[in-house]
Amino acid sequence: MSYLTLKNINKIYPNGFHAVHDFNLEIEKGEFIVFVGPSGCGKSTTLRMVAGLEDISNGEFLINGKRANEMGPREREIAMVFQSYALYPQMTVFDNIAFGLTLQGVDEDVIEEKVKNTARILGLTDYLDRYPRALSGGQRQRVAIGRAIIRKVGVFLMDEPLSNLDAKQRVTMRSEIAQIHRNTGATTIYVTHDQTEAMTLADRIVVMKDGYIQQVGTPYDLYYEPVNVFVAGFIGEPPMNFVRGVLKDGKLTFGANQLDVTKKLGDKAKKYEGKEIVFGFRPEAIELGSKPGAYVVKADVELTEMLGDNTNVYITAGEDKAILKVDPHDTPKIDTTIEFSIPMESVYLFDGETEMVIK
Ligand code: ATP
Fold it and tell me: DSSP character for 358?
Protein backbone atom coordinates (compact mmCIF):
# COMPACT_ATOMS: atom_id res chain seq x y z
CA MET A 1 0.00 0.00 0.00
CA SER A 2 1.26 3.45 -0.87
CA TYR A 3 0.74 7.00 0.25
CA LEU A 4 0.77 9.79 -2.27
CA THR A 5 1.68 13.45 -2.22
CA LEU A 6 0.61 15.92 -4.88
CA LYS A 7 2.37 19.27 -4.51
CA ASN A 8 1.28 22.22 -6.61
CA ILE A 9 0.50 19.96 -9.55
CA ASN A 10 -0.37 21.76 -12.79
CA LYS A 11 -1.31 20.48 -16.21
CA ILE A 12 -0.91 22.64 -19.27
CA TYR A 13 -1.74 20.72 -22.45
CA PRO A 14 0.42 21.25 -25.55
CA ASN A 15 -2.29 23.48 -27.04
CA GLY A 16 -1.78 25.82 -24.07
CA PHE A 17 -4.94 24.83 -22.18
CA HIS A 18 -4.37 24.99 -18.42
CA ALA A 19 -6.48 22.02 -17.24
CA VAL A 20 -5.27 21.64 -13.63
CA HIS A 21 -4.14 24.48 -11.34
CA ASP A 22 -2.00 24.07 -8.21
CA PHE A 23 -3.46 20.77 -7.07
CA ASN A 24 -2.32 19.98 -3.51
CA LEU A 25 -3.26 16.79 -1.69
CA GLU A 26 -1.83 14.19 0.68
CA ILE A 27 -3.40 10.77 0.30
CA GLU A 28 -2.87 8.39 3.18
CA LYS A 29 -2.23 4.66 2.97
CA GLY A 30 -5.47 2.79 2.44
CA GLU A 31 -7.52 5.93 1.93
CA PHE A 32 -10.43 5.98 -0.53
CA ILE A 33 -10.30 9.37 -2.26
CA VAL A 34 -12.92 10.50 -4.75
CA PHE A 35 -12.36 13.29 -7.27
CA VAL A 36 -15.73 14.74 -8.18
CA GLY A 37 -16.87 17.64 -10.32
CA PRO A 38 -18.66 18.51 -13.55
CA SER A 39 -17.43 17.45 -16.97
CA GLY A 40 -14.15 19.12 -17.92
CA CYS A 41 -13.10 20.10 -14.38
CA GLY A 42 -9.80 18.21 -14.64
CA LYS A 43 -10.55 15.02 -12.69
CA SER A 44 -9.36 12.58 -15.34
CA THR A 45 -6.35 14.70 -16.19
CA THR A 46 -5.24 14.62 -12.54
CA LEU A 47 -5.82 10.87 -12.32
CA ARG A 48 -3.87 10.29 -15.51
CA MET A 49 -0.94 12.30 -14.13
CA VAL A 50 -0.98 10.06 -11.04
CA ALA A 51 -1.06 6.99 -13.31
CA GLY A 52 1.86 8.26 -15.37
CA LEU A 53 -0.23 8.39 -18.54
CA GLU A 54 0.08 12.16 -18.74
CA ASP A 55 3.12 14.36 -18.01
CA ILE A 56 3.01 16.69 -15.03
CA SER A 57 3.68 20.21 -16.35
CA ASN A 58 4.58 21.74 -12.99
CA GLY A 59 4.75 20.58 -9.41
CA GLU A 60 5.87 17.43 -7.71
CA PHE A 61 4.25 14.03 -7.33
CA LEU A 62 5.58 11.65 -4.66
CA ILE A 63 4.84 7.98 -4.03
CA ASN A 64 5.75 6.92 -0.49
CA GLY A 65 7.75 10.11 -0.15
CA LYS A 66 9.79 9.48 -3.33
CA ARG A 67 9.61 11.77 -6.36
CA ALA A 68 7.63 9.95 -9.05
CA ASN A 69 7.20 12.58 -11.79
CA GLU A 70 9.64 10.75 -14.07
CA MET A 71 8.60 7.20 -13.18
CA GLY A 72 6.88 5.17 -15.91
CA PRO A 73 3.40 3.77 -15.25
CA ARG A 74 4.72 0.30 -14.35
CA GLU A 75 7.28 1.58 -11.89
CA ARG A 76 4.56 3.37 -9.97
CA GLU A 77 2.88 0.07 -8.97
CA ILE A 78 -0.53 1.37 -9.83
CA ALA A 79 -3.51 -0.46 -11.34
CA MET A 80 -6.21 1.37 -13.24
CA VAL A 81 -9.82 0.57 -14.14
CA PHE A 82 -11.32 2.57 -16.99
CA GLN A 83 -14.89 3.41 -17.81
CA SER A 84 -14.62 1.37 -21.02
CA TYR A 85 -13.47 -1.83 -19.22
CA ALA A 86 -10.83 -2.42 -21.92
CA LEU A 87 -11.18 -6.22 -21.78
CA TYR A 88 -9.61 -8.43 -24.45
CA PRO A 89 -12.57 -9.80 -26.44
CA GLN A 90 -10.68 -12.86 -27.69
CA MET A 91 -9.73 -13.96 -24.17
CA THR A 92 -11.85 -15.73 -21.58
CA VAL A 93 -12.66 -14.13 -18.25
CA PHE A 94 -9.93 -16.28 -16.69
CA ASP A 95 -7.31 -15.08 -19.17
CA ASN A 96 -8.45 -11.47 -18.90
CA ILE A 97 -8.04 -11.54 -15.13
CA ALA A 98 -4.75 -13.44 -15.38
CA PHE A 99 -3.31 -11.17 -18.07
CA GLY A 100 -1.04 -9.01 -15.91
CA LEU A 101 0.40 -12.01 -14.08
CA THR A 102 0.92 -13.94 -17.30
CA LEU A 103 2.90 -11.01 -18.69
CA GLN A 104 5.04 -11.00 -15.57
CA GLY A 105 5.77 -14.70 -16.12
CA VAL A 106 4.23 -15.82 -12.84
CA ASP A 107 3.92 -19.63 -12.34
CA GLU A 108 0.75 -21.14 -13.77
CA ASP A 109 -0.23 -22.74 -10.46
CA VAL A 110 0.07 -19.42 -8.67
CA ILE A 111 -1.91 -17.69 -11.43
CA GLU A 112 -4.68 -20.27 -11.19
CA GLU A 113 -4.97 -19.87 -7.44
CA LYS A 114 -4.96 -16.08 -7.61
CA VAL A 115 -7.51 -15.90 -10.43
CA LYS A 116 -9.83 -18.25 -8.53
CA ASN A 117 -9.47 -16.19 -5.39
CA THR A 118 -10.14 -12.94 -7.22
CA ALA A 119 -13.12 -14.46 -9.04
CA ARG A 120 -14.53 -15.57 -5.69
CA ILE A 121 -14.27 -12.04 -4.24
CA LEU A 122 -16.02 -10.67 -7.31
CA GLY A 123 -18.66 -13.38 -7.76
CA LEU A 124 -17.21 -14.44 -11.12
CA THR A 125 -16.40 -18.10 -10.34
CA ASP A 126 -19.10 -19.41 -12.69
CA TYR A 127 -18.02 -17.18 -15.55
CA LEU A 128 -14.30 -17.93 -15.85
CA ASP A 129 -14.69 -19.79 -19.17
CA ARG A 130 -16.88 -17.19 -20.81
CA TYR A 131 -15.82 -14.49 -23.24
CA PRO A 132 -16.55 -10.82 -22.47
CA ARG A 133 -19.28 -10.63 -25.14
CA ALA A 134 -21.32 -13.16 -23.15
CA LEU A 135 -21.29 -11.05 -19.97
CA SER A 136 -23.53 -8.26 -18.72
CA GLY A 137 -22.10 -4.76 -18.26
CA GLY A 138 -21.78 -5.28 -14.52
CA GLN A 139 -19.98 -8.60 -14.96
CA ARG A 140 -17.57 -7.06 -17.49
CA GLN A 141 -16.82 -4.27 -15.04
CA ARG A 142 -16.10 -6.85 -12.36
CA VAL A 143 -13.65 -8.59 -14.69
CA ALA A 144 -11.92 -5.26 -15.28
CA ILE A 145 -11.72 -4.73 -11.52
CA GLY A 146 -10.48 -8.31 -11.06
CA ARG A 147 -7.69 -7.72 -13.55
CA ALA A 148 -6.63 -4.67 -11.57
CA ILE A 149 -6.83 -6.12 -8.05
CA ILE A 150 -5.14 -9.44 -8.82
CA ARG A 151 -1.76 -7.74 -8.94
CA LYS A 152 -0.27 -6.51 -5.72
CA VAL A 153 -0.24 -2.79 -6.30
CA GLY A 154 0.18 0.19 -4.05
CA VAL A 155 -2.58 2.27 -5.57
CA PHE A 156 -5.80 1.53 -7.34
CA LEU A 157 -7.18 4.13 -9.77
CA MET A 158 -10.70 4.11 -11.17
CA ASP A 159 -12.04 6.51 -13.79
CA GLU A 160 -15.85 6.56 -13.85
CA PRO A 161 -15.96 2.76 -13.59
CA LEU A 162 -19.75 2.60 -13.27
CA SER A 163 -20.81 4.98 -16.01
CA ASN A 164 -21.68 2.26 -18.52
CA LEU A 165 -24.02 0.47 -16.13
CA ASP A 166 -27.73 1.01 -15.62
CA ALA A 167 -29.00 2.68 -12.44
CA LYS A 168 -29.63 -0.57 -10.55
CA GLN A 169 -26.29 -2.12 -11.48
CA ARG A 170 -24.54 1.06 -10.44
CA VAL A 171 -25.96 0.81 -6.93
CA THR A 172 -24.96 -2.86 -6.66
CA MET A 173 -21.47 -2.32 -8.05
CA ARG A 174 -21.01 0.69 -5.79
CA SER A 175 -21.47 -1.40 -2.68
CA GLU A 176 -19.25 -4.11 -4.20
CA ILE A 177 -16.48 -1.59 -4.76
CA ALA A 178 -16.82 -0.46 -1.14
CA GLN A 179 -16.60 -4.11 -0.06
CA ILE A 180 -13.55 -4.76 -2.26
CA HIS A 181 -11.87 -1.74 -0.75
CA ARG A 182 -12.59 -3.03 2.75
CA ASN A 183 -11.14 -6.42 1.78
CA THR A 184 -8.04 -5.18 0.00
CA GLY A 185 -7.43 -1.99 1.98
CA ALA A 186 -5.76 -0.55 -1.13
CA THR A 187 -5.16 3.18 -1.46
CA THR A 188 -7.74 4.21 -4.04
CA ILE A 189 -8.49 7.25 -6.18
CA TYR A 190 -11.88 7.15 -7.82
CA VAL A 191 -13.10 9.68 -10.38
CA THR A 192 -16.77 10.41 -10.91
CA HIS A 193 -19.15 13.25 -11.73
CA ASP A 194 -21.82 11.62 -9.56
CA GLN A 195 -22.07 13.13 -6.10
CA THR A 196 -23.95 10.10 -4.72
CA GLU A 197 -21.06 7.80 -5.68
CA ALA A 198 -18.66 10.26 -4.11
CA MET A 199 -20.65 10.57 -0.89
CA THR A 200 -21.19 6.82 -0.46
CA LEU A 201 -17.67 5.61 -1.31
CA ALA A 202 -15.21 8.23 -0.16
CA ASP A 203 -13.19 8.62 3.00
CA ARG A 204 -12.47 12.08 1.61
CA ILE A 205 -13.84 13.87 -1.43
CA VAL A 206 -11.99 16.37 -3.59
CA VAL A 207 -14.49 18.68 -5.29
CA MET A 208 -13.10 20.26 -8.47
CA LYS A 209 -14.28 22.97 -10.82
CA ASP A 210 -12.50 24.52 -13.83
CA GLY A 211 -9.22 22.84 -12.89
CA TYR A 212 -9.21 24.13 -9.31
CA ILE A 213 -9.83 22.23 -6.08
CA GLN A 214 -12.83 23.79 -4.39
CA GLN A 215 -12.80 21.78 -1.17
CA VAL A 216 -11.33 18.60 0.28
CA GLY A 217 -13.16 16.89 3.10
CA THR A 218 -15.17 13.96 4.40
CA PRO A 219 -18.67 13.52 2.99
CA TYR A 220 -19.96 14.90 6.31
CA ASP A 221 -17.76 18.02 6.07
CA LEU A 222 -18.81 18.77 2.51
CA TYR A 223 -22.48 18.35 3.25
CA TYR A 224 -22.59 20.33 6.47
CA GLU A 225 -19.68 22.73 6.02
CA PRO A 226 -19.46 23.63 2.32
CA VAL A 227 -16.96 26.44 1.77
CA ASN A 228 -18.72 28.02 -1.20
CA VAL A 229 -21.87 28.12 -3.30
CA PHE A 230 -20.46 25.64 -5.81
CA VAL A 231 -19.75 22.88 -3.27
CA ALA A 232 -23.04 23.56 -1.46
CA GLY A 233 -24.90 23.15 -4.74
CA PHE A 234 -22.92 20.16 -5.98
CA ILE A 235 -23.20 17.96 -2.89
CA GLY A 236 -26.73 16.88 -1.98
CA GLU A 237 -29.67 15.67 -4.07
CA PRO A 238 -31.84 17.58 -4.77
CA PRO A 239 -29.26 20.34 -4.43
CA MET A 240 -29.26 23.13 -1.86
CA ASN A 241 -31.72 25.94 -2.62
CA PHE A 242 -30.28 29.40 -3.11
CA VAL A 243 -31.99 32.77 -2.90
CA ARG A 244 -29.90 35.70 -4.10
CA GLY A 245 -30.55 39.28 -3.20
CA VAL A 246 -29.24 42.58 -1.98
CA LEU A 247 -29.42 43.04 1.78
CA LYS A 248 -31.74 45.93 2.70
CA ASP A 249 -32.15 46.92 6.35
CA GLY A 250 -30.70 43.51 7.20
CA LYS A 251 -33.40 41.76 5.19
CA LEU A 252 -33.39 39.57 2.11
CA THR A 253 -36.48 39.29 -0.06
CA PHE A 254 -37.80 35.85 -1.00
CA GLY A 255 -41.02 36.51 -2.97
CA ALA A 256 -43.30 38.36 -0.56
CA ASN A 257 -41.14 37.27 2.37
CA GLN A 258 -38.57 39.42 4.10
CA LEU A 259 -35.97 37.26 5.81
CA ASP A 260 -34.11 39.08 8.56
CA VAL A 261 -30.59 37.68 8.33
CA THR A 262 -28.96 40.04 10.81
CA LYS A 263 -29.09 37.43 13.59
CA LYS A 264 -27.35 34.92 11.41
CA LEU A 265 -24.79 37.49 10.24
CA GLY A 266 -24.09 38.88 13.69
CA ASP A 267 -21.57 41.72 13.61
CA LYS A 268 -21.05 41.21 9.84
CA ALA A 269 -24.57 42.50 9.14
CA LYS A 270 -23.33 46.06 8.66
CA LYS A 271 -20.62 45.01 6.24
CA TYR A 272 -23.15 43.27 3.99
CA GLU A 273 -25.80 46.00 4.04
CA GLY A 274 -26.47 46.98 0.41
CA LYS A 275 -24.41 44.02 -0.87
CA GLU A 276 -25.55 40.87 -2.58
CA ILE A 277 -25.73 37.76 -0.46
CA VAL A 278 -26.85 34.21 -1.14
CA PHE A 279 -29.20 32.53 1.30
CA GLY A 280 -28.95 28.73 1.13
CA PHE A 281 -31.03 25.96 2.66
CA ARG A 282 -31.26 22.25 1.92
CA PRO A 283 -34.53 20.79 0.61
CA GLU A 284 -34.68 18.39 3.58
CA ALA A 285 -33.83 20.98 6.24
CA ILE A 286 -37.32 22.47 6.48
CA GLU A 287 -40.55 21.84 8.32
CA LEU A 288 -43.99 22.56 6.99
CA GLY A 289 -45.90 25.18 8.97
CA SER A 290 -44.69 28.04 11.07
CA LYS A 291 -42.16 27.25 13.81
CA PRO A 292 -40.98 29.72 16.41
CA GLY A 293 -37.41 30.97 16.02
CA ALA A 294 -37.16 29.77 12.40
CA TYR A 295 -37.33 31.62 9.08
CA VAL A 296 -40.95 31.25 8.03
CA VAL A 297 -41.57 31.46 4.30
CA LYS A 298 -44.75 31.60 2.21
CA ALA A 299 -44.57 30.10 -1.28
CA ASP A 300 -46.72 28.64 -4.05
CA VAL A 301 -46.66 24.96 -4.91
CA GLU A 302 -45.90 24.45 -8.58
CA LEU A 303 -45.33 20.72 -8.79
CA THR A 304 -44.95 17.69 -6.52
CA GLU A 305 -43.07 14.45 -7.14
CA MET A 306 -43.93 11.48 -4.94
CA LEU A 307 -40.79 9.34 -4.71
CA GLY A 308 -41.98 6.80 -2.14
CA ASP A 309 -39.95 7.69 0.93
CA ASN A 310 -40.39 11.44 0.37
CA THR A 311 -42.03 13.97 -1.90
CA ASN A 312 -40.15 16.74 -3.71
CA VAL A 313 -42.22 19.91 -3.67
CA TYR A 314 -41.29 22.55 -6.26
CA ILE A 315 -42.18 26.00 -4.98
CA THR A 316 -42.02 29.54 -6.24
CA ALA A 317 -41.95 32.79 -4.31
CA GLY A 318 -41.86 35.74 -6.68
CA GLU A 319 -38.91 35.17 -9.02
CA ASP A 320 -37.31 32.61 -6.73
CA LYS A 321 -37.70 28.88 -6.98
CA ALA A 322 -36.82 26.10 -4.53
CA ILE A 323 -37.38 22.42 -3.87
CA LEU A 324 -38.58 21.09 -0.51
CA LYS A 325 -38.37 17.48 0.59
CA VAL A 326 -41.39 16.53 2.67
CA ASP A 327 -43.00 13.42 4.11
CA PRO A 328 -45.27 11.94 1.41
CA HIS A 329 -48.16 12.01 3.88
CA ASP A 330 -47.81 15.80 4.08
CA THR A 331 -47.67 16.38 0.30
CA PRO A 332 -49.32 19.76 -0.35
CA LYS A 333 -51.71 20.34 -3.24
CA ILE A 334 -50.48 21.94 -6.46
CA ASP A 335 -51.45 25.61 -6.90
CA THR A 336 -51.90 26.21 -3.19
CA THR A 337 -49.86 28.52 -0.98
CA ILE A 338 -47.93 26.89 1.82
CA GLU A 339 -45.91 28.05 4.76
CA PHE A 340 -42.68 26.37 5.78
CA SER A 341 -39.95 26.97 8.32
CA ILE A 342 -36.18 26.87 7.95
CA PRO A 343 -34.43 26.50 11.30
CA MET A 344 -31.78 29.19 11.82
CA GLU A 345 -28.99 26.58 12.12
CA SER A 346 -29.90 25.10 8.71
CA VAL A 347 -29.33 28.36 6.88
CA TYR A 348 -26.09 29.04 4.99
CA LEU A 349 -25.15 32.55 3.95
CA PHE A 350 -22.66 33.22 1.17
CA ASP A 351 -21.01 36.40 -0.05
CA GLY A 352 -22.74 37.20 -3.35
CA GLU A 353 -19.52 38.47 -4.89
CA THR A 354 -16.94 35.87 -3.84
CA GLU A 355 -19.53 33.08 -3.40
CA MET A 356 -17.65 32.03 -0.26
CA VAL A 357 -19.57 31.01 2.86
CA ILE A 358 -19.91 33.76 5.47
CA LYS A 359 -18.79 32.37 8.79
P1 ATP B 1 -15.10 14.35 -17.85
O2 ATP B 1 -15.93 14.01 -16.66
O3 ATP B 1 -15.91 14.97 -18.97
O4 ATP B 1 -14.15 13.29 -18.29
P5 ATP B 1 -12.90 15.65 -16.50
O6 ATP B 1 -13.17 16.47 -15.28
O7 ATP B 1 -12.33 14.32 -16.31
O8 ATP B 1 -14.20 15.61 -17.39
P9 ATP B 1 -10.58 16.18 -18.10
O10 ATP B 1 -10.76 15.05 -19.04
O11 ATP B 1 -9.55 16.08 -17.06
O12 ATP B 1 -11.97 16.55 -17.40
O13 ATP B 1 -10.34 17.49 -18.94
C14 ATP B 1 -10.10 18.75 -18.33
C15 ATP B 1 -10.02 19.81 -19.39
O16 ATP B 1 -8.85 19.60 -20.19
C17 ATP B 1 -11.18 19.82 -20.36
O18 ATP B 1 -11.55 21.15 -20.61
C19 ATP B 1 -10.64 19.16 -21.60
O20 ATP B 1 -11.26 19.64 -22.75
C21 ATP B 1 -9.18 19.53 -21.56
N22 ATP B 1 -8.33 18.52 -22.20
C23 ATP B 1 -8.32 17.20 -21.97
N24 ATP B 1 -7.41 16.57 -22.73
C25 ATP B 1 -6.82 17.53 -23.48
C26 ATP B 1 -5.79 17.55 -24.47
N27 ATP B 1 -5.16 16.42 -24.83
N28 ATP B 1 -5.45 18.72 -25.02
C29 ATP B 1 -6.06 19.87 -24.64
N30 ATP B 1 -7.03 19.94 -23.71
C31 ATP B 1 -7.41 18.79 -23.13
Answer: P
